[in-house]
Amino acid sequence: MFNSPRRGFLAAVALAIPLVVAGSAAASATAEPMIKVSDGLTQPVFSYQDAIREHVRVQSSVDSDGDGKKDLVRVDIIRPKESNSGLKVPVIMHESPYYDAPGVGYENDHKKYDANGNVTKFPMYWDNYFVPRGYAFVSVDMIGTRLSDGCPTTYGATDVLGGKAVVDWLNGRATAYDDKGAPVKATWTTGRTGMIGHSYEGALGAGVAGTGVRGLETIVNIAGYTSGYETARNNGALTWYKGVQEELANRVDLDPDEKCAAVRQRLREGADDDTGNYNAYWDERNYRTGPISKARNVRASVFSVVGMQDRNVVGSQFSEWWAKLPRTVQRKAWVTQYGHLDPFWARREVWLNTLHQWFDHELMGVSNDIMRQPRVDVQLGPDRWITQADWPAPVARTTTLRPRQDGSLGRKPSTGTGSYLDTAQSEVAMAADPGITNPNRLAFLTPSLEKAMRLSGTPSVSLRLTLDKPTANLGVLLVDYGTDTRINYRERGATAAEGLKFIGGEDCVGQSTGDDDGCYLKAGDNTATSGFNVVTRGILDAQNHKSLSRSTPLKPGKPYQITWKLLPQDYEFKAGHRLGLILTGSNDDFNLDEAGTGTGADAEPGTGAKVTIDLARTSISLPLVTGTPTE
Q1: CATH number of 50-332
Q2: Which terminus of the chain has fewer CB atoms gathered within 10 Å of its CB, N or C?
Q3: Which of the following is catalytic: 55, 198, 340, 356?
Q4: For residues 440 and 103, what is the distance between their CA atoms, to the nearest angstrom?
Q5: DSSP code of 197?
């Protein structure tokens, strides 16, 4: 249901954008160009071939490269030709650092330009699909990349404020210039803007939304981070290789190295990879509660997509931000078992229809049922999706399980201790053969489940432990033991990655031209049959157990009670399977290298510390939808 301000917004949009509902008398009563709506969706009545293509440079409020001049942000535009004849259109905006390197989307698309410098091929499908339906599409080179001024700052304030300046220009609050330096106004738009993007691009949408900028009506955040700290580390433990902040900035900026050398040095120093602590550098890159962008300031509606097996942008990037959004923010989410994935490649037809309804409702004011549909789509397995009212599942209830000396996991506590060494291992090595003694882990299993149950939310673990060194990396895995065919999120290669594989053929989305056909490879679920699956995980540098901002070494031999959150998940454990709790050290799958694979063991090689666990005061708490493990 809509509250009064929302109804007022819909009425205002109906006045701002000429709409024709199929079969209405209005279609023949005016010669003005109109947007056509049928069955609650805008229709492709405008020519993509004849669309206006132009570009401007928007003056931002920042000087990221310190040259004494405010950075100009390159904006490439495509809009229906009718927007030069009185039709005012909303904007779908894609801001990206990737237009030069490596390219946009899974096919690494790049822009193509004509002799006048206007784009003839835009990466991805948004222009092909939405411009014929009465939208403008603007493609923004993030500050420091492609044809924009300045230096990239790896999710820093200037990255965000460059995008904000474009939204301001679209709403008449900033200045843009053509190639001759003449001011250009966006007279063709309603100002209503929606940002969309994947990964870094999705993060920029979240960052700009958190400034509270007016005119940004919605964002579609696809696997985009909301905390820079949680991209590079997890609870004090490094999860990306050292120097990644500087390297990311260098990778997307193809200008001569000397231009931004000083900026990259500040990135390297600010990140403080030697301690893994949270500091002012990371606070600037915090879009939840940071100084530039705050979740509480978000006015835009939010459509989020998260892969719960994403190693790059982990699930807490979604869940922590989602929980902090104002209750008044309209929102929708897809929660998947994929990795770092854009659902355009996974569930294409459903995704396009949902996205179409979303933009029509939020930017055009079209009356459709998108907000009456269940808020969240959840993927439970290959080709298996459910819907629910919110995330996590409102009916989830916390169940606490405790490890026992005999290797079981149940409701009742146990006495005794167990110990292991903090060494860097892969998750498969840590979880395999739980019944075999392994000096680098402790394994505990429930009995076989009498009925299926679903984990929905964020588990937490509490360990009573003693170390023989001042710190250790504390690792926890929650494992599903039972043979099943599951999404294979681990495989990476030329034809499969992040839980998907290319299946041959192409889909052509929207209208096309000779330079831009809007055609993309088809993909489907990549599955594998296995005897177990790591469901979620958590890691903590023990010396950060009191504070992420300050390291406090532990006193060897002294017992400590340490409690922290694992990564969130929404996952079904089938009847007959067993839940497993693995206590271990450094997680090699979290030690990502430059290719984004879990082989960067130099990040956290393990301390070699002996970790002794007091079983009587150790537990894991799980938000479960139905049922509990057998006693």
Answers
A1: 3.40.50.1820
A2: N
A3: 340
A4: 41
A5: E
